[in-house]
Amino acid sequence: MKTFDNDIKDLNIKPVYQEEHQTHEQKFEEHGEVVEEVLSLSEQEKELIIKALEKNNNKRKLAAEELGISERTLYRKIKEYNISK
């Protein structure tokens, strides 16, 4: 017979976090020191969009495909994050 704890594990519930609580740590060297930068989800998203645009020579269609989003969503995010060419 299953116990309550096993039932909970079987549900495979994943926690939901609000954007401001979710962060990502990036480590890089600056002047010989390791520096940690904590980015919010929106900052991470903005960086991914910028990198995808750069990689695809600012071709929004290709960048959107790489990111797995529609061109319309990409356009809206570019406007939201004030990303310029």
Describe this structure in words.
The chain is α+β, with helices and mostly antiparallel strands. The chain has one domain: Homeodomain-like (Arc Repressor Mutant, subunit A, Orthogonal Bundle). It has 4 helices and 2 strands, in the order αββααα. A hairpin with a 2-residue loop joins β1 and β2. α2 packs across α3 and α3 crosses α4. The chain is elongated and about 40 Å long. It starts with a helix and ends in a 5-residue tail after the last helix.
Uncertain runs: 13-24
Rg over CA atoms, rounded to whole Å, is 19 Å
Number of separate domains: 1
How do the helices and strands follow one another from N- to C-terminus? HEEHHH
CATH architecture term: Orthogonal Bundle
Mean pLDDT: 77
The class by helix and strand makeup works out as alpha+beta
Number of strands: 2
Sheet bearing the most strands, described? 2 strands, antiparallel
Find the CATH superfamily.
Homeodomain-like
What is the overall shape?
elongated
Strand order in space, largest sheet: 1-2
* Quaternary organization: single chain
- The helical percent reads 40-55%
Task: Quote the CATH topology.
Answer: Arc Repressor Mutant, subunit A
Beta-strand percentage range: 15-25%
Distance between the termini: 61 Å
Q: With helices defined by DSSP (H or I, 4 residues minimum), what is the helix count? A: 4
CATH class: Mainly Alpha
Give a quick set of tags describing it.
85 residues; alpha+beta; Arc Repressor Mutant, subunit A; two-stranded antiparallel ribbon; 4 helices
